[in-house]
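yo, Succinate--CoA ligase [ADP-forming] subunit beta, mitochondrial is done. seq:
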Amino acid sequence: MAATTAPPPQHPRVSGVAVTTLGDVKRAIQDVLPDQNEVVVKAQVLAGGRGLGTFKNGFKGGVHIVKTDQAEDIAGKMLGQILVTKQTGAQGKVVSKVYLCEKMPLVNEMYFSIILDRATAGPLIIACSKGGTSIEDLAEKFPDMIIKVPIDVFRGITDEDAAKVVDGLAPKVADRNDSIEQVKKLYNMFCECDCTMLEINPLAETSDNKLVAADAKLNFDDNASYRQKEIFALRDSSQEDPREVAAAKADLNYIGLDGEIGCMVNGAGLAMATMDIIKLHGGTPANFLDVGGNASEGQVVEAFKILTSDEKVKAILVNIFGGIMKCDVIASGIVNAAKQVQLKVPVVVRLEGTNVEQGKRILKESGMTLITAEDLDDAAEKAVKATAS
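structure:
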């Protein structure tokens, strides 16, 4: 979908401001929310479930409605603290910003989102007349209230599509035509900004029957970073797994998991198969790491640094099927990585394909203590056994 240089369309929303220090709270309220008796204080982390989250300092809830003179105290209990929600994992995320916004007179909270749907091979609007909680919970509690409107990507959104959403959410909305236009604008924003998800939860109906975005979450397609430079300049790497940040800088595909066996594989399909075989043998993969088909020796070294930085890793499995990727390059990378990184865990290596004999010779002559494997099944079995030793 083509991007545009025009600013994204605006949807009615609450007024607010983000602050990073406690000293900014009072000044921000005076400048942006001067007439508010109450404000909403929201911890800013890239995860859902904030309202039901718990801080590691014991403070409960990442979203609070408070009197204006209490905002500084509540913000102080959030800033610099670690918030744990059902989406952050046990490690939680550090709150470096809080968002202060006006408290709206709401009569109903609804759910609205646009996602990319594989089943329809295009954008899908999902909405529910109940909101304020996750769509998974809503679908479980109110399955008959879920509205799904697939959008023809070639035709774009129509008045009829938008009307299905509005009439299903708020049949008594004050200005139906305006609300239909707002849904269309949200869809256009989804396309123009290269979103993979646009979620408004809650989409609120006010006491005067208007629809307002009370909160929003957007995901953007990483492949569109070259044409969405302004958006990607806002990326906060402190909210991301530092291993994933390091991997991205090294042009490696890495996703951290919670297992004990670190994996380094070439090719996404082989990486998935490796993880499956590890599970089949009773082990748990610590990550997905695809070095690609043309990795350099330096990238292999960086991959090992990332794997060994995970304290949960008890063994490393290197599974390479050399095609474009040459086994001797991988072997040299492993040897150089061992010189730079203190390998305190067993390393299982399975090499096959282009220059495999040269690769095996490099490893043998390195003097390293490695566990070699003949095939994937053998490699996974040995890696699982190594974690128990």
